[in-house]
Amino acid sequence: MTQFPWRRALRRVLSMLGTLLGVAVLVFIMLRAIPGSQITAGLGTEAAALTPDQRAALEAYYGIDKPLVVQFFNWLGNVLTGNLGFSSRAQTSVLNLTLGALPVTFELAVLSILLALLIGIPLGMLSASKPDSARDGLGQLVGLAGLSVPSFLLATVLMSWLSAKFAFNPNGEAYATLFEDPVRNLRQMLLPSLVLGFGIAAPIMRTTRTALLEVRSQDFVRTARAKGVGSRRLQVRHILGNALVPIVTMTGLQFGYLLGGAVVVEQIFSLPGIGRQVLIGIQGKEYAVVQSTVLIIALSFVLVNLATDLLYRIIDPRVRAE
Amino acid sequence: MSVDIVETTEPTPVKAGVRLRLLLHSRTGMVGLVIVAVLLLVALAQAVGLVGYDPLVQAPAVRLQGPSGAHWFGTDQFGRDVFSRVAAGVVNTARISLVAVAVATVIGTALGVIAGFYLKGTDAVISGATNILFAFPPLLLALSLASVMERNWFTVAVAIAIVYVPIFIRVARGPVMSLREIEYVRAAVSTGQSRMAIMLRHVLPNITSIVIVQVSLSLSWAVLTEASLSFLGLGTPPPAPSLGSMIYEARTLMYVAPSTMIAPGVVMVLLVVGLNLLGDGLRDVFDPRKRGT
Amino acid sequence: MTRGSRAQRGTLSVISLGLAVAMAASGCSSSTATGGSSTAASPKVGGNLVVGITTDPDNLFPWKATQFQAVNVLQTLYGTLTEFDKDLNVVPGLAESWTVSSDGLTVTMKLRTGVKFADGTTFGSEDVKFSLDKIKDKATAAVAASSLASVKSVDATDANTVTLHLSAPDAGLLANLAVINMAILPSESTEQSLKTTPDGTGPFVMKERKASQSITLARNDAYWGPKANLDTLEFRIIPDETSIVSAMQSNNVQLAILNDPLVAKTAQGGSLTVTKTAQLSYHVLQLNASRSVLADVNVRLAIQCAVDRQQVLDTAALGEGEVTGPITSPAYKSDPSSRPCPKRDLAKAADYLAKAGKSDGVTIKTIVSQGEYATSVAEAQNLKAQLAEAKITLDLEVLASDPYVNKWIAGDFDAAVALNGGRPDPDGMYGRYFTSTGNLNKVAGYHSADLDALFAQGKQTSDPTARKGIYTKVSDNLEANAPWIWLFTGFTYTASSSKVSGFTPMANGSVQYLRTTSLS
């Protein structure tokens, strides 16, 4: 076996840290660019009645009276020492909020991806098994539907219909974590992960189909076939095995996006996830909440990418053979 | 919000005439082309005044009417003609997604080519910025852009473009890196041609097909993104209609005047399906991996 | 991003103000309108009621909370010296009774005895003095500070009596004391501790809070009035009104206040009842008379004459509301037909424009918020179309909620489409906008010596009939000078499951009658 590539690992870690720093600067600037402050967010139009003294007192209270550079490094310094800030809305630390919200979104992302793979891969295999046939058309049609229906529409319609017709609406109950009440938790995850999974199944199905078609046309498959490797074994072991790389890439990419991009679905199904935490933070202008949460989302995204790359090394025979 | 990225493969050029023939032969591509063309033709007919009314004129006396001979898709709460608004919405939506994808393509491809060609420091900066944009939640990006800029169809397009730029950078950078090593590019470098000339003459033509495939995927995606932004209240501001904002505004009129929601909804799904099919057709034609299957 | 609901409104019959009427669900619903006063049989004690709300309360400190949801929760936790009954009359609260001296400068309040805070300490006059002094203190930055402007000092005369010394008579004071921003807090309590551990004299006490998910309250067994019927009261956060209705249909939520008429329409029928309540808040086109062409009263009157308010209401809100004048509270209501152009009159509008020397028309930049409330953008679109016919061009600037609020509070606009909160007392409602010293005068953009005198007179008059006369003059003055164009008032919708009884919705949006609500 080869030696552990220290230099490459170090470079990767440095590049990850650079990305995170960039995200930190960007989120800081973007938040400040949005007009308004925690004062106007809290008081709304009543903020017009504040005297200059009161305004100054409130600015000091929220820590937004200091120069921007000082604010930035104060926050960054705190984050580096493990203090993510405090939410005056929730009256708890951002760390506590995140420890509650991150598992919700993580679970939702995992379940959605699982569903997407369960739908997407078999459909892709079905389509690729006989290109331009009726079953290919069927598979492509489902993929097209997944790509063409906006998730907010699907989510709203699904929930309204199920609760009006069947009084079935697990998301109306108080949210339970997987440890508090596994059954209720999974029921609450069912609809949101179906909606998200359906949307993601489409790109996964397409990737699978394309990858399978491509791999099949390659030399080693012809060789294997010529050597008399059985059809079933060829299909699963050789073809699917070699088509895994693009599928894993696509899955990793979608998973990373789900960590920060499931806001609308979390909103419609009242899941207290990380996307909603950012949204509520933006609405309340709780700078520390948004900055730290976005940084955590970016960190998860970067880690998912890393995991995907590591996975390549395991599954890609070409990389392994090096 | 899902994304679709073309995997990078080594590029090979094909003649234009062959491509057009291939597209016309691809069944999906043809269906897509017809759907999109019909929608755009009807929209154009409305825009030049052949059919329908002014999409902005209010006539409260005839508000919330069902479909009729005078108003094919009925009227909305202000008595505006829904058909004319849907037609104008198609133009607006198509314009937003075209501009968004065009901006993303030009900027993203340029940066991607530069990064892939120069490598070293330039690449580090561009790829670093790409990584940051990738790791940044797109919602927050859109939100802050919408709050900072005065909102019109162009700024909405720019907001969508910014989310898509890093994807084009990645798509372009990979093949350029492998092109660098190809004999004739090396030869061009050694004969002392300017880098600009090499990039334009030798590199760019060789990655067009991979970029076009990405464009074909992005167009329909941009239409859906515009709809999502509208759902968050960040889409095209009224009174100018876009398909996304029309669906969003009519969401609660569904029971009172169903046509105000169904008409833009169906047309949007048609447009997205058409663009997707057209994209598939283009991919079949341009994607080097697909040829020969 | 559903900060407010943004929907259009359904075709529902118009009802008279202040009255809550059940929307008969096409004859299949047998449930009648719920009413706090109609407690026929003795209500069942016990049960856990879940109330759906769209947003997590952002601040649980009563003196600073302005968000609707936060105010709702605080109303069940804290007490005030006076209270409103269901018709918005001032009735005793923590003050059992009061007398006003003949010169109107001294108010003596007899406090209720045997009242306890949630932490067990006894309520007394020192708590009242502490609270009122602190609210007046600029350093506290309490939102109701200006309501106590006329109060010179507060004395704790004895353990159960407080005396308020006024600098001038203030007839609006007793009503101002009834809002939750005037909640009496235990002396020596701090904002920091109360934010995490509320400590009030209300019918419920805090039990548990899960940030972004729910706030659960329990019955306060030491409450001074009739004890609440419910064992617990949970405010469950469901960000979308449509989702709240879904949760009600599956009986996970039993009560909700909805703003979106069409969501309310989908809720009715089956086991749910929906009642609507006219609101004090009003939809208005604010003109900024301190800016550009709008400084000329004739331009403002031209706008006033060029608008058909009923058309704005019909198109933007599908008729769900009532055309209104400036004052919306039932006791002082303005007559909407008493204005320069009660009906749209384009000829008169042209005359006014000619008088202003602007016959060629004017252009006015107008800010509109998208997402702040349901009908804003629709109102703006219709106003634009109507005014265009009078050569008045509204340049619409559609803004996200934060930039809009920022411009509004700075008075940085020519015109603004707005939904402003109303109050039961007209002095509290408009004194801060249209008097030269009012703290929102910058936003109103208009004041005059006449209005200053009228508002001062209103404050000094306590006889109800005389007050009504004064505020009618205020209302007429406002319409004659058209600093703003008042449009219409809307409704809120109370959706409840058939098991809920004893809840009375109020015109000021208060949910104080959760204390008499029971579940069968």
Structure characterization notes:
The complex is a heterotrimer of chains A (322), B (293) and C (520). Chain A has 322 residues and is mainly alpha-helical. Chain A is 77% helix and 1% strand. Chain A contains 14 helices and 2 strands, in the order ααααββαααααααααα. The N and C termini of chain A lie close together (10 Å). By secondary structure, chain B is mainly α. Chain B contains 10 helices and no strands. With 520 residues, chain C is an alpha+beta fold. Chain C has 2 domains: 6-201 and 499-519, Dipeptide-binding Protein, domain 1; 281-491, Dipeptide-binding Protein, domain 3 (Roll). Chain C is globular, with a radius of gyration of 23 Å. At the A-C interface, helix 2, helix 3, helix 5, helix 7 and helix 12 of A face strand 11, helix 5 and helix 11 of C.
Descriptors:
heterotrimer; A: 322 residues; mainly alpha; two-stranded antiparallel ribbon; globular; C: 520 residues; alpha+beta; Dipeptide-binding Protein, domain 1; Dipeptide-binding Protein, domain 3; twelve-stranded mixed sheet; 15 helices
Helix content of chain C: 25-40%
Beta fraction of chain A? under 5%
- Give the overall silhouette of chain C: globular
Kindly report the average pLDDT value of chain A: 84
Biggest interface and residues each: A-C, 54 and 58 residues
Instruction: Indicate the multimeric state.
Output: heterotrimer
DSSP helix fraction of chain A: over 70%
Uncertain ranges of chain A: none
* Count of individual beta strands of chain A: 2
Count of discrete structural domains of chain C: 2
Q: From the alpha-carbon coordinates, what is the Rg of chain C to the nearest angstrom?
A: 23 Å
Quickly give the structural class of chain C. Answer: alpha+beta
What's the number of helices of chain A?
14
